[in-house]
Design a protein that fits this description.
- The complex is a heterodimer of chains A (about 700) and B (about 550).
- With about 700 residues, chain A is an alpha/beta fold.
- Among the domains of chain A are: about 1-60, 2-Layer Sandwich (Nucleotidyltransferase, domain 5); about 80-220, Rossmann fold, CATH 3.40.50; about 495-605, no CATH class; about 615-685, no CATH class.
- Chain A has 18 helices and 36 strands.
- In chain A, strands 13, 14, 15, 20, 23, 24, 32, 35 and 36 form a nine-stranded mixed beta sheet that branches. A seven-stranded mixed beta sheet of chain A has the order 12-11-4-1-2-3-29, sandwiched between helices.
- In chain A, α4 crosses α5 and α9 packs across α14.
- With about 550 residues, chain B is α+β, with helices and mostly antiparallel strands.
- Chain B has three domains: about 5-215, no CATH class; about 355-515, no CATH class; about 515-545.
- Helices cover about 30% and strands about 25% of the residues of chain B.
- Chain B contains twelve helices and 21 strands.
- In chain B, strands 2-1-5-4-3-6-7 form a seven-stranded antiparallel beta sheet. In chain B, strands 12, 13, 14, 17 and 20 form a five-stranded antiparallel beta sheet that branches. A five-stranded antiparallel beta sheet of chain B has the order 15-16-21-18-19, with helices on one face.
- In chain B, a hairpin with a 2-residue loop joins β18 (about 480-485) and β19 (about 485).
- In chain B, α4 packs across α5 (about 170-200).
- Chain B is globular, with a radius of gyration of 24 Å.
- The chains are: A alpha/beta (about 700), B alpha+beta (about 550).
């Protein structure tokens, strides 16, 4: 066994590839993403293999792929025509949405256009009730007529979303049988299979997204599998899912909606890998790039997962302005703050930073590509945080004069000089990221205070210490190979599939036969998917969880439940497990209130990936001993500058200090200490401050109504 | 104060308010809080002036904290307060305009004195009395009236008051749970602000609040000064449950010298017998909301930005309710206040106003027994009509305006009670015709699975009067409320037969701009499509907020 595995992460801008040997050696490569993703895929693979002198047949561990193809298909809206079948009387389910406006102050607000037009939406005479009984059987004749219309319209893929099908999928299956008999080869996505959750609009939206992207994703993945086989690879292609799970390409091809956040999920998984490696169970992954910053909480070594997110937002940072998706996804917040974020002046005469961005074209003023308005990168340069001669390892010379000029010019409008403005931009962008993280945490019942940050992305390490201070955090970690962290993340993730089904019921009055059936069907489905991806049966582990809440509340907590509790139908123990978690999150328990089950979840895992050591194949640089003046909030310091690859494990440095690498610059603020650990991670720490435990209801606990 | 520090501190105050608002929404038992964000969280200074307001879903709350601030300060001067005090009221005139909204203020102690308050207000699940609806005959029938009181004194709960609340509301666990969450939000918010002052070594909030209020006021006055001075009129006429007709008239005077607006509601309807009367603080909120959205939506709400919007209302009218008028369903009328305001503003801000919208939400609540004889009572569920069209685009269909309220999914309602929906689809063509069409209304049809009579509490409006088009466009169609195919109009709870079928046809919104002459139509259409596409691209890149 030669022990190689390979990961390919195709993002919007870059295609990253990582080749790993079991002994800890890594080879990485980063290229611009090509128009034809398939071509980019194979040339990336070829180039990294060549570099490591490795042959396709030597890849006997995994081949994992994260891709942006599904998201592209949704955003570009260029997929082939797609149809939707709904229950008669509810043909407008995609158009009416949830009736809400995402911003009540915007009179000019728009809503996302439905993915499948009204003209291609068809009403099926049928009805299933909320308890799962069928009050009106599917009118097969009517479905046959619809099939004729679909064939005439040359529709290749169809979504079927009937009311209450999450409770009983019989009618949707009947519709599929008729359609597939009438139009052999037509792709059919059933809502009961794609996203069996209560709430008709999000389920229909998710199913429509699946049906819409399947004619693009399936042939793409088939072509990759074929190409790999032809090139001599022997392993099954695996695909990174939005949930952080990894599954065979064949199954992924039928569930493309699960691949939407494939790449970002991989980044969060890399963070959770470090959480485990460094024994820091709670982390905040903080990835700040050119246009946006992304942050994700890692709790107990696992990234937070959500079952509702949005894609294709009209207003990128506005919740509620996109198409809802209800499949498991890494719970990540995207903030309009990056290196390219533009400074502005609002009608109050005050400084704003972002979310408008100069992007990569024209980019910041200092790129010298025609940008005129100052950005975060320009102010970083003027403050001395960046080195004009050492950007991208010196490949790109930055225009410091131009940046200073732009800052001075813009500063006049705010009555600030260039240095003051630069410091102001630095302060404001840090604050806006910190407050977005606080809001994200509060929405999820997570305590944001004092969580260590794992910083990556081009601008992340420049701003991480500042953001950490604003989040009362005392630790920032800068992992090695940060520029290909997503691809790295796919390689350190076990095979995994997450399934869930809505099943509302009071804990004391559950229909346990139905619960047992739901859970055992999900276990079977998840296991067989892992077997198809190359797992051995004895390696598959299964976890069961329930989404529970106090009846009358809206937010559920996901509670892991050992299978013997379910088998024994031990309601008391389930209640106790929920109350313990609720108390941990909110600080109280409510004795008089019933508990409801909202959904059941099953997760099947393959064997863990072992990776105790990381040895990146990067040339070590000689010790440098530069210094430069850098402006911080507390004043200008003559600051030492180091090259990262020259820092050996055990090395310690005192802030302020700058550490440069090819793709980014690490800024250690005054008051912080930095050290390098044996994995090559740089740790920045500052003096501990007493943090009081915060939970929305610590105070509640003291109010005696609940005693 | 230096502009960078001001920006950072200001953002921090809003962020602290937002954070506590989110925490409240997340743990709320009250359905309208979690579905519609019907709550407010604010930071006020030691003089009770509103400094920062959380961005939430309910425009009616824009002004409520400001009103409450003035009244709490008058009743409880800051130097009389102790750490651990929390203040409470649900007085409609002194705070949030109906009993359901309970306001709680927590003083912020910093360096041994009160430097301000964190206030929160949420719409609770129940407040006793008539329950939600317009059927009470006077305010006392509407439930429990809590004057300005201390809920906690030096950390000790006011046991008498808690006992009274527990005894007077229908779901005491939910109401007391949500009150406890408000106290907690106030306490944590206050700690956060004290920590902020510590971090930046501020003496108190005065300098900061002065800077925020002055700047906001200046920006708002500057925006008003750019308008064409004069007095502009608008009115709206609509019908409410029971068939009563309501008129709201405004004359808005734009004074470009002082940089202020005065909205005079003279000529509006007299008080109603129904619980749809609006206290003046709520009228002011919707007036300010409408002007704010058209004039300068990027300026945050606070005492400064609200100061230039004056309101004059006739004593004892439907938009200036007097004791003992019932006010519980004040949103039925209040949500129409922006319509005449925008009609008047059309003369000065034609690009940013909306044509008349369907207005009030259509709400229903059902009570009865399922087939097994088990009793059930639903909370309110709502459906929207069409929004009015805009100068450059059509109105949104089946979308609420001015509030932002989600419809509860059919599957959720069907899982929780014995209701079955037969239809929920747009009523195409009900939006007013015009260069840009108004948003369409929708049809919602349901029946119950029960063997016994049941009760329906339906609040509908605009079933006889269209929503006017603007700039020569057509009107949006009026709605219909039908039981077994027959039109119904009653403000009180209806007793229904087991098999009755209910239909809501919500109104369409008004159109904007006269239809182009047919001969020119194809040319214009092509241009419009192109413009629409370009607009969409721009919008996508123009990431907001």
């Amino acid at each position: 066994m030669s022990g190689y595995s390979i990961a390919i992460d195709i993002g919007g801008t870059f295609t990253d590839v990582v080749l790993r040997h079991r002994d800890g050696r890594f080879w990485v490569d980063k290229t611009l993403t090509t128009e034809d993703l398939k071509q980019g895929f194979f040339s990336a693979v070829e180039s990294v293999l060549k570099r490591a002198s490795c042959r396709p047949d030597m890849i006997d561990d995994v081949i994992v792929h994260a891709t942006t193809i599904v998201t592209n298909a949704i955003i570009e809206r260029k997929a082939p025509r797609c149809g939707l079948l709904t229950t008669e009387g509810f043909r407008d389910v995609l158009v009416i949405r949830d009736e809400c406006r995402s911003d009540i102050f915007d009179n000019q607000l728009e809503v996302p256009e439905a993915l499948i037009p009204y003209e291609l939406t068809f009403a099926v005479p049928e009805r299933t009730l909320a308890d799962g009984t069928v009050s009106r059987k599917v009118d097969r004749k009517a479905v046959k007529e619809i099939a004729k219309r679909l064939a005439k319209e040359k529709v290749a893929s169809v979504a079927v979303c009937l009311l209450n099908s999450y409770k009983n999928p019989e009618s949707e299956r009947a519709v599929r049988d008729v359609l597939q008999f009438a139009i052999p080869g037509i792709m059919v996505s059933l809502s009961a299979e794609v996203a069996p959750q209560m709430r008709e609009y999000p389920r229909a939206s998710t199913t429509a997204l699946n049906a819409y992207t399947m004619p693009i994703a399936k042939p793409y993945l088939d072509a990759l599998r074929e190409g790999l086989r032809a090139a001599g690879f022997r392993q099954e292609l695996l695909i990174m899912l939005s949930s952080g799970g990894v599954i065979g390409a064949e199954i992924a091809g039928s569930n493309p909606v699960r691949m939407i956040e494939s790449g970002p999920a991989a980044g969060a998984l890399a963070a959770s890998f470090y959480a485990k490696l460094l024994s820091l169970p709670n982390l905040l992954s903080f990835d700040m790039g050119g246009t946006t910053a992304k942050a994700c909480f890692i709790q107990n070594g696992q990234p937070l997962i959500t079952t509702t997110f949005e894609v294709d937002r009209i207003y990128r940072f506005q919740q509620g302005s996109g198409l809802p998706v209800t499949v498991p996804c890494i719970d990540m917040i995207e903030i309009g703050a990056g290196g390219g974020s533009l400074a502005g002046k609002d009608s109050l005469g005050l400084l704003t930073v972002g979310p408008q961005s100069a992007g990569s074209k024209p980019g910041p003023v200092c790129y010298g590509r025609g940008g005129t308005d100052p950005t975060v990168t320009d102010s970083d340069l003027i403050l001395g945080l960046l080195d004009a001669g050492n950007f991208l390892g010196g490949e790109m010379k930055l225009d410091e004069k131009g940046a200073r000029h732009a800052l001075a010019d813009f500063g006049k409008r705010l009555n600030l000089d260039a240095d003051q403005l630069a410091l102001g931009i630095y302060e404001v962008v840090g604050e806006s990221m910190a407050s977005a993280v606080r809001a994200h945490a509060t929405d999820r019942g997570v305590d944001w205070r004092g969580v260590p940050l794992l910083a990556f992305g081009g601008a992340g390490p420049v701003h991480a210490c500042h953001v950490a201070e604003l989040l009362d955090s005392t630790t920032v970690i800068y992992p090695p190979m940060a520029s290909v962290l997503s691809a790295f993340g796919t390689l350190v993730t076990p095979l995994r599939l997450d399934l869930f089904r809505s099943d509302l019921g009071r804990l004391g009055q559950l229909d346990w036969t139905g619960v047992d059936r739901n859970i055992s069907e999900m276990i079977e489905e998840a296991q067989s998917a892992l077997l198809k991806a190359g797992c051995r049966k004895e390696e598959v582990r299964v976890g069961i969880a329930g989404d529970l809440r106090y009846k009358g509340q809206h937010n559920e907590l996901t509670i892991s439940l050992p299978s013997d509790l379910i088998e024994a139908r031990n309601v008391e123990a389930i209640r106790a497990a929920f109350e313990a978690e609720y108390e941990r999150t909110y600080g109280i328990k409510l004795d008089d209130v019933d508990i409801e089950v909202v959904a059941w979840r099953v997760t099947a895992f393959g064997p863990n990936v072992h990776q105790d050591e990381i040895r990146s194949q990067v040339q070590a640089a000689g010790e440098g001993s530069k210094r430069r003046p850098v402006r911080f909030s507390s004043g200008v310091y003559d600051t030492p500058v180091h090259v990262r690859s020259s820092l050996r494990p055990g090395k310690t440095l005192t802030g302020p200090v700058i550490i440069e690498e090819r793709e980014t610059t690490i800024v250690i603020l005054p008051g912080w200490q930095a050290s390098v650990d044996r994995h090559g991670c740089i740790f920045a720490n500052r003096e501990e401050r007493d943090l009081e435990p915060h939970s929305a209801a610590r105070a509640l606990e003291q109010s005696d109504q609940y005693r | 104060m230096n502009p960078i520090l001001l920006r950072v501190l200001w953002n921090n105050l809003i962020s602290i308010a937002n954070e506590q608002a989110r925490a409240l929404r997340r743990t709320a038992f009250s359905p309208v809080v979690r579905e519609a964000g019907d709550l407010a969280v604010a930071v006020l200074d030691e003089r009770g002036r509103l400094v920062a307001n959380a961005v939430t879903g309910a425009p009616g709350h824009i002004n409520t904290m400001r009103t409450a601030g003035e009244n709490f300060i008058a009743a409880f001067p800051p130097d009389t307060l102790q750490p651990g005090d929390h203040l409470i009221t649900n007085d409609p005139w002194l705070a949030a305009a109906h009993f359901f909204d309970i306001t709680i203020f927590s003083p912020i102690f910093y360096r041994d004195k009160v430097i301000g308050f964190v206030g929160s207000c949420i719409h609770h699940t129940d407040i006793g009395g008539y329950g939600m609806g317009a059927g009470a005959r006077d305010i006392h029938e509407e439930g429990l009236w809590i004057p300005l009181l201390k809920l906690y004194e030096a950390g000790e709960p006011n046991k008498t008051l808690f006992h009274i609340i527990r005894t007077n509301v229908r779901e005491p666990e939910h109401v007391l749970g949500d009150i406890a969450a408000q106290v907690s939000a106030g306490r944590i918010g206050a700690e956060r602000i004290a920590a902020l002052c510590e971090r930046y070594d501020l003496e108190d909030l005065q300098q900061l609040s002065n800077a925020i209020i002055e700047r906001s006021e200046e920006a708002t006055r500057a925006a008003i000064r750019k308008l064409k001075p004069g007095t502009y009129r608008g009115d709206t006429i609509f019908d409410v449950p029971g068939g009563e007709e309501v008129v709201i008239k405004v004359a808005i005077t734009i004074d470009t010298e002082k940089g202020e607006t005065t909205t005079d509601f003279a000529g509006s309807s007299p008080p109603s017998q129904l619980g749809i009367n609006v206290c003046l603080n709520y009228t002011k909120a919707y007036n300010a909301f409408a002007i704010h959205c058209c004039l300068n939506p990027d300026v945050p709400n606070n005492n400064g930005s609200l100061a230039p919007f004056n309101v004059i209302a006739p004593e004892s009218s439907i938009i200036n309710a007097r004791y003992p008028s019932p006010v519980s369903a004040r949103h039925v009328v209040g949500m129409h206040v922006p319509m005449p305001v925008m009609k008047a503003l059309y003369h000065v801000l034609p690009e940013t106003v909306l044509a008349e919208c369907a207005g009030g939400l259509w709400s229903a609540q059902i009570f009865g027994r399922d087939r097994n004889g088990r009793a059930f009572a639903s909370s309110m569920f709502n459906y929207s009509g069409g929004m009015g069209a805009r100068a450059s685009k059509r109105g949104l269909s089946a979308t609420c305006y001015p509030a932002g309220i989600s419809a509860v999914p059919i599957e959720v309602l069907e899982a929780e009670m014995p209701i079955v929906f037969d239809r929920k689809e747009l009523l195409r063509g009900t939006g007013g015709k015009g260069q840009h069409a108004g948003g369409d209304g929708q049809i919602v049809k349901f029946h119950l699975k029960t063997k016994q009579p049941w009760m329906l509490n339906a609040i509908v409006s605009r079933t006889r009067h269209d929503s006017d088009g603007l700039a020569g466009a057509g009107a949006g169609a009026a709605g219909r409320f039908l039981v077994n195919g027959k039109s119904v109009s009653d403000a009180r709870k209806l007793v229904m037969k087991p098999a009755d079928e209910v239909v809501f046809e919500t109104p369409g919104g008004g159109g904007f701009g006269a239809l182009p002459r047919v001969r020119n139509a194809p040319v214009k259409k092509a241009g419009a499509a192109k413009a629409k596409k370009a607009n969409r691209t721009v919008k996508r890149n123009d990431a907001r907020r």
